[in-house]
Amino acid sequence: THPTLLDTRFGHVRRWLGQHGHDEWKLDELAYALAHLRSNPTIGTWREIRSEATQLGLWNMVALQLLPLVDDERGKSQPVRARALAAVGRFDDALSVLQTLADGTRTSAGRDIARDAASTRPDIARPLLEAALRKLEAKKGVAARQEREELIAEIAALSVAGEAPIGRPDMSDSRDPS
Q: Residue 105 burial (CB < 10 Å; 0-12/13-18/19+)?
């Protein structure tokens, strides 16, 4: 047994996962990533945990367990902290942290935060996605084009959910004389 699986801080998470019949290998990967995040909070580890926990259908529970680890203003990984705050619905706090980040990091973290905010706070999600789209306008290549298309689709999805479509003014308050 890997020593990180016996980690006391996340032992209760592992027990809960096991009690709900999840695959042992997935549990091992998640437990290892959780222990690793505690010692070295990086975006890569955060994304790995989010992906694995989402696959297991346990992201909401795991996110709440992660917040105390990263909800520290002096922490060395403010991008991870911003994502963690957004993951548990503390969008205003996440935006405050986001404003302190360097430009490129802010764009990357902003996209992740926007995805968390999309269903409940489109007022937060849309400006973050539009800012990321503006950053990509100057980039060339297939990957940049694909990323632009993904962003436009995400913004369009917000438009369908009640926001004004991208590139068009909100016409809900128009004063048409006819």
A: middle
Q: Write down the pTM of the prediction.
A: 0.60
Contact 118, 154 (CB under 8 A): yes
- Rounded to the nearest 10 degrees, what angle do helices 142-160 and 103-117 cross at? 40
**If DSSP codes are grouped into helix, strand and coil, which group holds residue 98?**
helix
Cα 40 vs. chain centroid, distance in angstroms?
18
CA angle 171–175–178, rounded 5-degree value: 110
- Given a contact cutoff of 8 angstroms between Cβ atoms, the answer to whether 130 and 108 are in contact is no
Query: What's the rounded Cα separation, in Å, for the pair 100 and 42?
Result: 17
What pLDDT tens digit does each residue of the chain (178 aa) get?
Answer: 333 433 555 566 667 667 777 666 777 777 778 777 777 777 788 888 888 888 877 787 777 777 776 666 555 678 888 888 888 788 888 888 888 887 667 777 888 888 888 888 888 888 888 888 888 887 888 888 888 898 888 888 887 765 444 443 333 343 344 3
